[in-house]
């Protein structure tokens, strides 16, 4: 299915064409660096205003930032370990399960831009 | 005249008229008009018990309108409108009628002032909604629908048992605040818990929602679970055990959501997680917390429907909603992508989006009532939900690796439905005052404090940072074609296997008995045959003439007896 025909971006909707820059070399890097900058700025912001906190732990500088980062990393790593034990093939429960059977064509309206 | 009509009946009336109309736009228009009229009525109804009916010596309250029931009924009407607009192209009468009946039953249940009415509508939502799953018309969907129906009807039966016991205990069928303690209240609690997808009772949700049709899932996502949230808020507000149940509910689905491949199932897991927030709010039970629950349910229905719509549109155009098969769709479905991102930002509670002004009510209530560990769990769950719903859904559907699929943009009515839902999500986020005014209690809460905005942004952006780092280092688990075992393994695999083990000895005993019986019978028949059959001893010596002689003698005796008597 991959890249069956060379793309013709002129046929894409204008909005889609406008977004194509993310695929150009360096496009992703731009987004990633922007994210780094925003994160650094938000971390620094913690020192610049008076925090109204309910809990003592909230006053720890960058508490929310660190909590978000490390808990999310832990979440993904735990989930990855879980997958080792929990993952099964798509027809594990029954040979004809909603996982393994295709969606009925008559309920779809597949239209390709390049078709 | 319409004031005297329970709002639910409006939907049932619509469902009756529907088959009479010609196929096509006329039906679709009716599907849109009914929720609009209903929403207008709900909004303008006076508060109070408006409609009462006598039923076998009971007085049923069909329309108990107060601030709590009104906000739920209102959002149900909005959800029905958006869902039906999204389903404008559907020509399937079954789905159209199911959508109307389902919405009507849910609204009826919300307005039910007594437990008997609640029970009827409770079962109504179960029976009407299963057709949205069966309408996919595949074998897998049929079996999934069956499982869904068994569990939903089971919940209704447990509710009925609870209602009967409760009537025996208290002599009342009123649906008011209850205290856990008697078997009756526990049964009612359990029935609510099943529909609310409490941990270990939750799998019907992740099983059935991804199995429904493209449009069915959008409609399913709004009603059943939020009806359960409403019922818990009405019946069990301030029940402490709900805090812990809710906290677990926010926690474990996010792990599954990270590794799940079917994006509609990812959304079902995150739906479960969002319900957890509402359940915690109900458990805390203060005015702030209950306001938070009602507000969050309102916002949640909108953004969850929006997310299901966007993934549904992808499914509609490509035939799959699996993360492993998708990617790069932003090029040809940019509007759907933007609406998906709006939904993602709303569920993640970005400032200026709806989740931000509603979820924080619950978190604040938890902190104010000194549930610090719960608060920490909710904060983790907030970051987690951003991770799997906020980033994963848009990323794997619209970006990630290019799948080579170049589907056309979603049809106009889907775009309108998504656009309207997006508008509402942002409107609630930017200007929450009208929503706050609808809440059951007075609100004196400002979500947009500097602290709140900055801390929330920190939480979210650093979660995004974690995603980026894990993605770029290749640690992030790739999307794989697979199913993940969840608690439904117990009744889809373990129980059948156990039954198989029990069946084995039972079958052996039966087979043994059967063989024994057959053998004995065979032996007996053979024995008789040998004795009296054509080659038997008895037939060897008796000529046929003997029989004729004996008959002649018998007849002669009969004649003599007759003559003599």
From TrEMBL, chain A:
Instruction: Name the keywords, alphabetized.
Output: Membrane, Transmembrane, Transmembrane helix
What stretches pass through the bilayer?
31-50, 62-86
Give the protein name, as stated in the record. Answer: Uncharacterized protein
Superkingdom of the source?
Bacteria
Q: What is the lineage of its organism?
A: Bacteria, Pseudomonadati, Pseudomonadota, Alphaproteobacteria, Rhodobacterales
Automatic annotation (TrEMBL), chain B:
Membrane topology, as annotated, equals: Multi-pass membrane protein
**InterPro entries given in the database record:** ComplexI-like_HydComp (IPR052175), NADH_UbQ_OxRdtase (IPR003918), ND/Mrp_TM (IPR001750)
Where does the chain cross the membrane?
A: 32-51, 71-89, 101-134, 146-168, 180-201, 208-229, 241-259, 266-285, 297-316, 328-352, 372-391, 412-433, 453-471, 541-564
Q: Which compartments does it reside in?
A: Cell membrane; Membrane
Looking at the record, the residues that make up the NADH:quinone oxidoreductase/Mrp antiporter transmembrane domain are 112-382
UniProt keyword terms in alphabetical order: Cell membrane, Membrane, Oxidoreductase, Transmembrane, Transmembrane helix
Q: Which domain of life is it from?
A: Bacteria
The coiled-coil segments of this chain are none
UniProt cross-references to Pfam families, sorted A to Z: Proton_antipo_M
PANTHER family registered for this protein in UniProt:
HYDROGENASE-4 COMPONENT F (PTHR42682), NADH-UBIQUINONE_PLASTOQUINONE (PTHR42682:SF4)
Q: What job does the chain carry out? A: NDH-1 shuttles electrons from NADH, via FMN and iron-sulfur (Fe-S) centers, to quinones in the respiratory chain. The immediate electron acceptor for the enzyme in this species is believed to be ubiquinone. Couples the redox reaction to proton translocation (for every two electrons transferred, four hydrogen ions are translocated across the cytoplasmic membrane), and thus conserves the redox energy in a proton gradient.
Protein name in UniProt: Na(+)/H(+) antiporter subunit D
């Amino acid at each position: 299915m991959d890249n069956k025909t060379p793309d013709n971006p002129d046929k894409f909707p204008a909005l889609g064409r406008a977004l194509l820059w993310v695929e150009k070399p360096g496009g992703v890097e731009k987004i990633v660096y922007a994210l780094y900058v925003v994160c650094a700025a938000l971390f620094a912001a913690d020192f610049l205003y008076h925090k109204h906190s309910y809990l003592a732990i909230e006053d720890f500088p960058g508490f929310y930032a660190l909590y978000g980062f490390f808990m999310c990393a832990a979440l993904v790593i735990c989930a990855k370990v879980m997958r080792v034990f929990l993952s099964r093939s798509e027809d594990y429960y029954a040979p004809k399960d909603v996982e393994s059977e295709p969606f009925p064509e008559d309920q779809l309206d597949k239209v390709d831009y390049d078709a | 005249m319409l004031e005297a009509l329970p709002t639910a009946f409006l939907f049932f009336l619509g469902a009756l008229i529907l088959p009479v109309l010609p196929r096509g736009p006329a039906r679709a228009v009716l599907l849109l008009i009914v929720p609009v009229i209903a929403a207008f009525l709900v909004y303008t109804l006076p508060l109070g018990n408006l409609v009462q009916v006598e039923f076998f010596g009971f007085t049923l309250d069909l329309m108990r309108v107060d601030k709590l029931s009104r906000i739920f009924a209102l959002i149900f009407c909005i959800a029905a409108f958006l869902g039906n607009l999204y389903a404008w192209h559907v020509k399937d009468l079954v789905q159209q009628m199911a959508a109307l009946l389902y919405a009507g039953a849910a609204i009826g249940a919300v307005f039910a002032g007594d437990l008997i009415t609640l029970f009827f509508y409770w079962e109504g939502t179960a029976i009407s909604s299963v057709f949205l799953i069966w309408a996919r018309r595949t074998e897998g969907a049929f079996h999934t629908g069956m499982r869904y129906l068994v569990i939903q009807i089971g919940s209704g039966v447990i509710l009925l048992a609870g209602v009967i016991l409760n009537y025996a205990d208290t002599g009342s069928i009123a649906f008011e605040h209850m205290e856990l303690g008697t078997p009756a209240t526990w049964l009612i609690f359990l029935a609510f818990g099943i529909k609310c997808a409490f941990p270990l009772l939750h799998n019907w949700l992740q099983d059935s929602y991804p199995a429904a049709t493209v449009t069915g899932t959008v409609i399913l996502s709004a009603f059943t679970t939020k009806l359960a949230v409403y019922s818990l808020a009405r019946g069990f507000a301030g029940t402490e055990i709900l805090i812990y149940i809710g906290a677990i509910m926010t926690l474990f689905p996010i792990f599954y959501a990270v590794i799940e491949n079917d994006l509609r199932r990812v959304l079902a897991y995150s739906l479960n997680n969002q319900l957890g927030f509402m359940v915690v709010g109900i458990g805390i039970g203060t005015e702030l917390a209950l306001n938070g629950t009602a507000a969050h349910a309102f916002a949640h229905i909108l953004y969850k429907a929006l997310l299901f719509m966007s993934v549904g549109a992808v499914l509609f155009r490509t035939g799959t909603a699996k993360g492993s098969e998708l990617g790069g769709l932003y090029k040809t479905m940019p509007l759907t992508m933007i609406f998906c991102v709006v939904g993602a930002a709303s569920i993640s509670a970005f400032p200026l989006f709806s989740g931000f002004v509603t979820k924080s009510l619950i978190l604040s209530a938890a902190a104010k009532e000194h549930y610090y560990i719960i608060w920490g769990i909710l904060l983790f769950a907030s970051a987690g939900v951003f991770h799997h719903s906020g980033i994963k859904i848009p990323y794997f559907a619209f970006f990630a690796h290019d799948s080579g699929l170049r589907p056309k943009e979603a049809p106009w009515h889907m775009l309108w439905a998504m656009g309207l839902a997006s508008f509402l999500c942002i409107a609630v986020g930017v200007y929450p005052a009208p929503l706050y005014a609808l809440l059951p209690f007075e609100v004196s809460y400002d979500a947009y404090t500097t602290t709140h905005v900055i801390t929330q942004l920190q939480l979210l952006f650093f979660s995004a940072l974690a995603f980026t780092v894990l993605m770029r280092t290749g640690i992030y688990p790739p999307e794989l074609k697979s199913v993940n075992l969840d608690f439904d393994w117990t009744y889809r695999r373990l129980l059948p296997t156990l039954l198989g083990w029990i069946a084995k000895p039972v079958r052996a005993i039966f087979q043994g008995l059967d063989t024994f019986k057959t053998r004995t019978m065979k032996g007996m028949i053979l024995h008789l045959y040998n004795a009296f059959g054509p080659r038997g001893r008895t037939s060897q010596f008796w000529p046929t003439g003997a029989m004729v002689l004996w008959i002649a003698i018998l007849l002669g005796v009969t004649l003599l007896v007759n003559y003599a008597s």
